[in-house]
Design a protein that fits this description.
alpha/beta; DNA-binding; six-stranded parallel β-sheet; homodimer; 12 helices
Chain lengths: 334, 334
DNA sequence: CCGTATCAGTTAACCGCTTCAGTGAACCGC
DNA sequence: GCGGTTCACTGAAGCGGTTAACTGATACGG
């Protein structure tokens, strides 16, 4: 009993059927061979327990059958949705997702992107931390690249699925303004602090337009860490009457801070999030938040990608409009 | 200007240095060559922009430098922690995690496992949906396999990181019993319903020992879906005085159901979860839950794996004891 | 001073599959 | 009945590395 049973190769199948290896290769892929031969080859392969060797195949053909997913930070809820979504979308297609996580580090992201290219992924979905890096253009020239959240600079990507952050900011700010808030704090996330995600630009523009005083502060993504920042903001001498958070998990940190300080939401301070995380409706009070349709974005990105790798590119650019999900965490200022 | 600049190969580096390809291969790995040659080769490689081709390397050597992570269901919070944790642990090691998601389907899990083997991963971390499948033993014979949550049947895996579900159940049940509960509903998750995760066996054993009446019901993982099950349970004629959920997200579903039915927690019904999800402390009321030390498990699994692939296996079996995190969602029965 | 290690490199055979160019044979229209 | 296609398949050259076996030097112990 061999401890490590060697797998059957294409040559053995060729021998068993009396064909050449090339013919077997063709037959297994259902091309350039007669129906009858294909059937014979399949039978022999089955018999021998033959299964194609993906690495050899990738080396010879320059294609791997994998779709790369490069997450800026897999800790983010929405990137997890992306990871789950793409895996699910590929079920039954004999394609697999190769998920890599840059852990929030732009340099690592580029290194991983190179790795994915060398790994001969057939396509790449990326939410670039730095969309202006020249590598993206280079990659987009040699394989389908779908970017999420930002258009890549230069290069002709296979598709872009962008969310309209400007509109999202407007929704939130107008909502708060309409309730009477004039002094709001904005907690942006570190993930949003790349040169190209001009969240605070939008915020400042809206604030000016609406005549509101805003202070923009950067906070970590995890609510536990964001709590400290929130505490500082809420303990400031002229406490803002509302806090607009650039992700729901930051908003959770604000909830924790209000609890610690004995403030009521929305009585003492209104809180508005950004994500519509599934948990947000379950909190007390349920969180008002900008819903940028994460599921829709994920589905769109996967669809564009799958179309692109299957050679029938359709829509190149998808923009999903955000909507405001008004719950009970926002109200008039005290 | 070539549209698709061809990458430099090892042969070109050989030519540039006047060495044989083999010597370059050795030099780049820092073996069987003089310091001086290695330096020269490195310089030439740098100059030519040479980078090793991982696929060719994997084909020739039978190793890929990747560690496979096979998640039963990437929707689970703790498996996401695992995915994040392993990626993070590999930063700077020139190793990458290949994350695949079986989407809760045991058949797909096995298919993916085969795929990972064929992909020549250097090691495999798996949380088997069905630990008794013979494939695991076969895999464990040819590469380091670390299983989480269940020991694999047969085969000598590189390591096992198991959580003591029996102890976890005991903690929760004794807590509820101590508060005076005698009629409790147990919502187990579908993920736990494999032949080998005898959650309900433990539950029934404990119930008998403590003299409690339990009804065990299976619920979906997502809280939105679990809510329906919870509604049925809580609307039953003789409503249980406590609900013990086999994951925090199921407990969230119970929260939602109590809200819908106008029941107070823990006044009308006590709720106990299982996970200590980061959100659980933020709910109203904060959730009492069994903390099985997800972070510790993840770290342990990654450590065991890394040790195994680096050829210095240390601990084969790690058991992390759970603890009970008592918050405000449990109290005496009404 | 000889036999034997050791070191630094070389040669060539793979790893298992794909693909390009080529070869008969059958089939086609005219 | 002949030139031209099409079809089904073969042969062999890769894809870009690794590695076992081998070769000369050089070092070393006795």
């Amino acid at each position: 009993m061999p401890r490590q049973r060697k797998r059957a190769t294409i040559r053995e199948v060729a021998q068993a059927t009396g064909l050449s290896p090339a013919a077997v290769s063709y037959a297994l892929r259902g091309i350039q061979t007669s129906e009858e031969t294909q059937e014979r080859v399949r039978a022999a392969a089955e018999e021998l327990g033959y299964e194609a060797h993906p690495i050899a195949r990738a080396l010879a053909s320059g294609r791997s059958g994998m779709i790369g997913l490069l997450c800026g930070s897999l800790e983010d809820y929405w990137q997890q949705s992306l990871a789950v979504g793409i895996g699910r979308a590929l079920v039954g297609r004999d394609r697999y997702a190769l998920i890599l996580d840059a852990a929030g580090d732009p340099a690592r992201e580029l290194a991983l992107a190179r790795r994915l290219r060398d790994q001969r992924v057939d396509g790449l979905i990326v939410q670039p931390l730095d969309p202006s890096a020249p590598l993206w253009a280079e990659l987009a020239d040699s394989l389908p690249v779908v970017s999420i959240g930002d258009a890549l600079h230069g290069g002709r990507s296979a598709g872009e699925v962008v969310f309209d952050n400007r509109a999202g900011v407007t929704l939130a700010m107008e909502h708060l303004h309409g309730l009477g808030h004039r002094r709001v704090a904005v907690l942006t996330s570190t993930r949003a602090s790349t040169p190209d995600r001009p969240a605070d630009v939008h915020v400042n523009a809206e604030a000016e337009r609406l005549g509101m005083a805003v202070t923009v502060v950067t906070a970590p993504q995890s609510w536990a860490e964001a709590t400290e920042v929130a505490l500082r903001v809420l303990a400031a001498p002229d406490r803002p009457t509302a806090v607009f958070c650039f992700s729901d998990s930051i908003a959770y940190g604000v909830y924790a801070a209000t609890r610690e300080l004995g403030l009521s939401v929305p009585g003492d301070v209104s809180v508005c999030g950004y994500d519509d995380h599934p948990m947000s409706g379950l909190l007390t009070p349920p969180l008002t938040t900008v819903d940028w349709d994460i599921d829709g974005i994920v589905r769109a990105a996967v669809r564009v990608m799958v179309d692109a790798v299957d050679g029938r590119p359709r829509r190149r650019r998808v923009v999903r409009p955000p909507s405001l999900c008004i719950r009970d965490s926002t109200g008039p200022p005290p």
